Amino acid sequence: MNLPIAMFHHIADNPHPSLKGWTISINQFNIFLDCITERGYETTTFETINLMNPNASLNKKIIITFDDCPASLFDYVVPELLRRGMKAVFFIPTAQIGGINLWDVEEQGFEAVRLMSADQLKYLSASGMEIGSHGDNHKRPEPNQEASKNETHQSKAILTALLGKQITSFSYPYGQIPKHYPALLKSAGYQFAAGIYTPFQTNLSLRRFGIHESDTKQSMSFKLGHIYRGLRFIGDPLLQLYNLIRV
Ligand SMILES: [Zn+2]
Fold first, then answer.
1. CA–CA dist 160, 154 (Å, integer)
2. Domains of the chain (ranges plus CATH)?
């Protein structure tokens, strides 16, 4: 699938130091939204694409994704996206709906942040946003098939029951794509799955790019284009070759 897919986590002006690496400021987020509008891009979602004719053009389409679903996205980001008539995809680890980022707190000592509630996810879904699975417990990949199934199948069942609709997309926790996952995701009925870096891109192992505080409007604009995706096509296999990405 040939279109830009952006990845965000937290958008806030004064993040806790432990979350700084995963946060961009409101101003930086707005610069990105301005950039995609000025470049003539239109936001779409995986579920929209899934319903389109497979031969339909994705030219000038972009998917904006948020991993983890911090509830603070409701402070600014969600109203701003709605105000601009933009869509986005929100990936929630289902065991923590209305909970916290427990995996980061326990493993890395990060500040605890509240994640979106069931009602907030329902509101987003009813507002034209897409809700996808980010696993159940946001686990690191493991070879155990049954435990993995809980992350893929169980999380999908939870979201289907909550939202009353089919769930189309999955986002790999930590961006790591274990070898056995694409087959598991396919058997669970997902159509799309997003990682970060991946040597071979398929609909179940899609590349995404992050936007950082150090990005300029020019570098953001570059990440939207074909040349950037061409560089990733060449660069991502090299990253694996030099063991810089784990699969
Ligand atoms: Zn995550």
1. 10
2. 5-241 (3.20.20.370)
